From TrEMBL:
It comes from Veillonella magna. This is Dihydrodipicolinate synthase family protein. Belongs to the DapA family. Keywords: Lyase, Schiff base. SUPFAM superfamilies: Aldolase (SSF51569). Gene3D superfamilies: Aldolase class I (3.20.20.70).
Amino acid sequence: MNLDKLKGILVPIITPVDAEENVDLSKLDEMIDRVINGGVSGILLFGSNGEFYMFDEATMEETLVHTLKYVNKRVPVYFGIGAIRTSQCVRLAKMAERHGADGISVLQPMFLKLTNEELTLHFNTIASAVDKEFPVLLYNNPGRTGYGIPPVVVETVAKQNNNVVGMKDSSGDITNLQEVIRRTSFKDFRVFGGKDTLVFASLCVGAVGGVCSIAQVIPEETVRIYNEYVAGNFEKAREAQYHINPLRLSQDKASFPVATKVMCNMIGLDVGPSVRPSLASPDDIQDIFAQELKAIGALPK
């Protein structure tokens, strides 16, 4: 298992849709080219910003096959899994492996609040269902699921499964991220910061990169944080982080997950609406977006 490419800025790419809420593959291709040309290190398909919870398995499979073919190994493509039922996660994991994805990212089950024993069994079952060389990343997002993956569970699952090789931590808690890194130091375990505003801070405590939704709106500016950091230009990396933060923070005024799609549409990418029941942000929120997009130089003149 070669993990050399598992680093940098990964983008949880949005899923463009048409007026009937079907996946618009041609617009997805445009987004793929945009983020790759912008310098991202990998693409996460059907992450939280990709609205995985809105699409059936057949649509996910069709979109994954198309994406892998279109990307054509320019960057790694990871497949997001957020199902509640373990057996459904296993089915999706095997599907992603069968079609040649570069790995999977598995969210802790939402709605439920699992014990450590239940979480460990859930992740172990998924990881053991695929080849031991097929990379599995855990995805900790307590803000959306209502509870976190405790670092001790991450440590246990990483010890018991050779292919559990990393984690995206969207907790926003640097202590938690740092504790995961400490507890998994016995192997080459790749931790990514999952908060766009904390990429620099995450790198400083040992993360290998960030999974950043804002990278599809301003890819070059987001990637610059990582590139400056690994070049040893720490002050420039921090400046790059501060440069993107006002735009990213403005998204918090909108309901999840519409902000990224709204911004993409505002800058002319025409990715379609969020899938209902989500609706586009009201005009007063879009006015704030427009101000921040203009300030960062992303709004077309």
